[in-house]
Amino acid sequence: MKSDVQKLVDNGTMLPLMEEFYTIQGEGYHKGAAAYFIRVGGCDVGCHWCDVKESWNPNIHPPTEITSIVENASNYSKTIVITGGEPLTWDMGPLTTLLKAKGMDTHIETSGAYELSGTWDWVCLSPKKMKLPTPGVYAAADELKMIIYNNDDFRFAEEQAAKVSKSCKLYLQPEWSKRDKMMPAIVDYVMANPKWIVSLQTHKYLNIP
């Protein structure tokens, strides 16, 4: 039998909050812009190169009232980025409803492994081979961010690009531990296929959290 707290987490009025912080967006289309990040715990996609594996287990992150999360966010920025973990593990509708009521722009970074919930001004989709996105997330994606760990990831990137809208921005980003090895191949690929854009984790180069 589920506890009262678990019921609130399941319906999205509480979320397992790993961390929240104000910083500079380091990746993709909005890089360089100030944003307030809300990192939600819980992910079963299982990327072996994930740099936030501590986000995977939702049970180690305290269930937090979304009213508190929104109040904190409203003190810092108009742009709110929901990330994880995999935020679509949970119902994002209640959280984004409160954020939009405060006049905030809502962005999500997701693998798309679960159905899209919530109201979004920007959807950054980063598909993973282990658990592919749902059809609805492809259709909603404003930005496709493909992580390049090895040469086969270029093939996978093209497969995924064929499933998003023509207006979706296409990015290739080296997995951080492979950046020196894969960057020359990424540069060559983008030059040969200019529909793609190189994305870097600029916050790591600048030593910004």
TrEMBL record:
This is 7-carboxy-7-deazaguanine synthase. Catalyzes the complex heterocyclic radical-mediated conversion of 6-carboxy-5,6,7,8-tetrahydropterin (CPH4) to 7-carboxy-7-deazaguanine (CDG), a step common to the biosynthetic pathways of all 7-deazapurine-containing compounds. Its EC number is 4.3.99.3. Substrate binds at residues 24-26, 39, 83, 209. The keyword Methyltransferase does not apply. Residues 30-209 form the Radical SAM core domain. Its cofactor is [4Fe-4S] cluster; Mg(2+); S-adenosyl-L-methionine. Homodimer. GO terms for biological process: tRNA queuosine(34) biosynthetic process. GO terms for molecular function: 4 iron, 4 sulfur cluster binding; carbon-nitrogen lyase activity; magnesium ion binding; S-adenosyl-L-methionine binding. Transmembrane segments: none annotated. The keyword Metal-binding applies. InterPro entries: 7-CO-7-deazaguanine_synth-like, Aldolase_TIM, rSAM, rSAM_sf. Pathway: Purine metabolism; 7-cyano-7-deazaguanine biosynthesis. [4Fe-4S] cluster binds at residues 43, 47, 50. It is an enzyme of class 4 (lyase). Keywords: 4Fe-4S, Iron, Iron-sulfur, Lyase, Magnesium, Metal-binding, Queuosine biosynthesis, S-adenosyl-L-methionine. It catalyses: 6-carboxy-5,6,7,8-tetrahydropterin + H(+) = 7-carboxy-7-carbaguanine + NH4(+). PROSITE patterns: RADICAL_SAM. Binds 1 [4Fe-4S] cluster. The cluster is coordinated with 3 cysteines and an exchangeable S-adenosyl-L-methionine. Binds 1 S-adenosyl-L-methionine per subunit. Belongs to the radical SAM superfamily. 7-carboxy-7-deazaguanine synthase family. S-adenosyl-L-methionine binds at residues 49-51, 85, 126-128. PANTHER family: 7-CARBOXY-7-DEAZAGUANINE SYNTHASE. It comes from the Bacteria.
